[in-house]
Sequence to fold (173 residues):
Amino acid sequence: MHLHVTIDLPTDAHGAARLLADPAYVAAKVREAGAVDQHVDVTGTVDGAFTVTTRRQLPTGQIPAHLRAFVGDRIDVRQVEAWEAAHEDGARAGTVVVEIAGAPVRVTGRTTLEPVAPGTSRVVYDGEVRAAVPLFAAAVEEAAGGAVRAALATEQAVAARWLSGADGHAQTT
Fold:
């Protein structure tokens, strides 16, 4: 199943990269998305290439009841976003992989960060959701895609609050 999600951020591309590489912000967005346990690791530097790895346990409430037998009462999600160094305008490209342990589901794709207007940038995720479940692959892919979309929508809301200082954090711009 193809997955295409866009997140608009109220900061320029350089500020957006600082946000995406900030371990405190990453932990906040993962927690807001419903993680009951989490680990965040950021390697590299925002001035160059950087990689953000998260591991989180999520309840399976978003997964249709008839599919929960495949994943249990919690799912372990590992997400890796590897961002290349920025262009002069702050634009970047990268890759994203989301794996769900214990479930034969994987999301792979490309991600881009680009300036779209003064003080505004956009992150685009474009990839494929694949489930290796006989007979139920399409339903599992749709459920996983819905969960990814919901997590990214949460990320946009957390980013807007974070950047405005509403969460008590300094602005990243």
